[in-house]
């Protein structure tokens, strides 16, 4: 089984980069960076006030406009990547049935994402306490103080209807929409974010918080070339923008430019040391196999974190790091600390369930992952839950697993319809679940865009499941060449080495994978043990 990339709100199975994790879990920048500027009492024409409206449905699950926003999901089943996954192999009648099923699931998923998911952000379980949100850099003090992102969005919308020339308010609203999309797994917010940020820059060109917002939006959509461009433009205006410094590291990491990312992390640390920079600095070191430094820096970040959201974020990152190294008890301790700070924090809930599965407590793992999927039907937890069902193998579990994979296809289609590049999600899901042609097409497309350890692993594995092991081997080796300690990558390498007849190298890679993280995947670890026996 391959490593899961969660490009919306949760960490990878292996270790999510900050670019693809909770953008909104970093502390606010200085007042100079976050205070909305340019407020005016001028009254705009009626059409300008109406233009402030695209945001109004953000927390109103029943509005007609929001219902319209959900509509693209109904066509999403026809999006090419998901259709390829669904159509690999079966007869024409089976394909028609699957297309109908996927269309239904996509529509259901859209409703969950644009209606129910938004409501979940406002109130915790039981409806007794407001959710605590650590707000992104660039958000206004009002948002930071409220702790309720959805309520803050409503407040900003109301303000902008009366003050439509407030370029700072538009910038803050754009970032808030990115935040809603990322934390709730709802890509329909991205076009709204684009409109708000465009409005800000139209009112005040080169406004650095809005440029930084564009960098964050591009990264959220997995346009890392665009993210780097806007981060650099922001830094031309404000060399000390914490958001832009962080986005620049993220973009370079996600483009596979690791040496430049390391230098960017050093620069950011010299200019704006703090939790956002510390976590990225740690990840750059982890990618190079320097787990000791990564852990030390994350512990430093946790020691300096004061907000509940920041504590949850950094503690979860430490939990993920320890899980990746097979230290499951320590991982559970960090996840418990994260959930003590925010008991609704998705990466901690998911990480805890994953760690419980690694420890053999499958019942607790399934219960926990079902809770995650119920709230946030995103690709990574959906696949993980499906594989937990497969591993359990009880009556009805096979169908339950297929249902999760169908929803993955629906999410990918929906994401594509809102401008999110989801080829890596497509490649990983398709490679492991019976659609090699779709996996290979998506992996090649992603590799054409960026050369990272994750895209190298995905392409190598897609080539393997397509029966092209000689072509796969250089990519599998490249995925492990930086020293990144990742059991899933090593498992893939071992299988591919064995397939081309390198029995000794296969055995070494598989043994290393299982020694490092023996429970790295409900299905993958089992297959790794079988492959190791075959290599002896």
Please give a quick description of this structure.
With 536 residues, the protein is an all-alpha fold. It has helices spanning 31-34, 46-51, 64-70, 72-76, 80-87, 92-122, 141-146, 149-162, 167-184, 189-203, 208-220, 224-237, 242-254, 258-271, 275-287, 291-304, 308-324, 328-341, 346-358, 362-375, 379-392, 397-417, 423-432, 436-449, 453-465, 469-480, 487-499, 503-516, 524-535.
Which helices and strands, and how do they pair?
Elements: H1 31-34, H2 46-51, H3 64-70, H4 72-76, H5 80-87, H6 92-122, H7 141-146, H8 149-162, H9 167-184, H10 189-203, H11 208-220, H12 224-237, H13 242-254, H14 258-271, H15 275-287, H16 291-304, H17 308-324, H18 328-341, H19 346-358, H20 362-375, H21 379-392, H22 397-417, H23 423-432, H24 436-449, H25 453-465, H26 469-480, H27 487-499, H28 503-516, H29 524-535
Helix pairs in contact: 3-6, 5-22, 5-24, 6-22, 8-9, 9-10, 9-11, 10-11, 11-12, 11-13, 12-13, 13-14, 13-15, 14-15, 15-16, 16-17, 17-18, 17-19, 18-19, 19-20, 20-21, 21-22, 22-23, 23-24, 23-25, 24-25, 25-26, 25-27, 26-27, 27-28, 27-29, 28-29
Q: Determine the strand fraction and express it as a percent band.
A: under 5%
Structural class: mainly alpha
Radius of gyration: 22 Å
N-to-C CA distance: 21 Å
Summarize the biggest pleated sheet.
none
Q: What is the multimeric organization of the chains shown? A: single chain
Unreliable runs, pLDDT <50, ≥5 residues?
A: 2-108, 110-146
Query: Could you tell me the number of beta strands?
Result: 0
């Amino acid at each position: 089984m391959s490593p899961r990339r969660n490009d919306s709100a949760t960490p990878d199975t292996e270790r999510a980069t900050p670019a693809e994790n909770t953008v909104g879990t970093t502390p606010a920048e200085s007042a100079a960076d976050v205070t909305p500027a340019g407020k005016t009492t001028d009254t705009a024409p009626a059409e300008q006030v109406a233009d402030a409206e695209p945001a109004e449905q953000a927390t109103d699950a029943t509005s007609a406009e929001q219902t319209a926003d959900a509509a693209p999901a109904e066509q999403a089943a026809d999006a090419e990547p998901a259709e390829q996954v669904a159509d690999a192999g079966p007869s024409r009648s089976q394909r028609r049935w699957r297309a109908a099923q996927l269309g239904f699931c996509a529509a259901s998923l859209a409703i969950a994402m644009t209606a129910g998911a938004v409501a979940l952000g406002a109130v915790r379980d039981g409806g007794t306490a407001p959710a605590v949100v650590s707000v992104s850099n660039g958000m206004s003090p009002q948002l930071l103080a409220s702790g309720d992102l959805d309520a803050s969005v409503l407040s900003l919308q109301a303000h902008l209807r009366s003050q439509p020339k407030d370029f700072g308010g538009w910038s803050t609203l754009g970032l808030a929409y990115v935040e809603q999309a990322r934390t709730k797994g709802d890509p329909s917010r991205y076009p709204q974010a684009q409109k708000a940020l465009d409005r800000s820059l139209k009112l005040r060109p080169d406004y650095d918080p809005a440029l930084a917002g564009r960098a964050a939006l591009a990264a959220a959509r997995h346009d890392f070339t665009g993210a780097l461009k806007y981060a650099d433009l922001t830094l031309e205006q404000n060399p000390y923008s914490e958001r832009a410094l962080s986005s620049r590291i993220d973009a370079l990491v996600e483009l596979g430019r690791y040496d430049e990312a390391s230098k960017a992390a050093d620069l950011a640390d010299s200019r704006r040391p703090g939790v956002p920079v510390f976590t990225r600095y740690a990840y750059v070191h982890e990618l190079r196999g320097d787990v000791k430094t990564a852990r030390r820096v994350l512990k430093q970040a946790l020691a300096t974190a004061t907000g509940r959201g920041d504590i949850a974020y950094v503690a979860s990152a430490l939990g993920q790091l320890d899980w990746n190294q097979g230290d499951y008890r320590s991982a559970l301790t960090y996840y418990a600390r994260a959930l003590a700070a925010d008991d609704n924090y998705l990466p901690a809930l998911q990480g805890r369930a994953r760690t419980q599965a690694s420890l053999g407590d499958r019942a607790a793992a399934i219960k926990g992952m079902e809770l995650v999927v119920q709230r946030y039907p995103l690709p990574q937890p959906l696949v993980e839950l499906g594989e937990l069902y497969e591993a359990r193998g009880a009556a009805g579990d096979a169908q339950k697993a297929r249902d999760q994979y169908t929803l993955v296809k629906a999410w990918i289609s929906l994401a594509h319809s809102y401008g999110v590049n989801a080829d890596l999600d497509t490649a990983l899901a398709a490679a492991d679940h019976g659609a090699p042609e779709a996996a290979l097409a998506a992996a090649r497309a992603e590799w054409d865009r960026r050369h990272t350890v994750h895209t190298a692993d995905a392409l190598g594995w897609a080539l393997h499941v397509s029966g092209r092991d000689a072509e796969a081997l250089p990519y599998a080796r490249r995925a492990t060449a930086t020293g990144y300690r990742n059991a899933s990558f090593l498992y893939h390498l071992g299988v591919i080495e064995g397939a081309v007849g390198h029995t000794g190298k296969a055995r070494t890679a598989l043994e290393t994978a299982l020694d490092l993280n023996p429970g790295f995947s409900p299905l993958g670890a089992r297959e790794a043990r079988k492959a190791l026996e075959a290599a002896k």
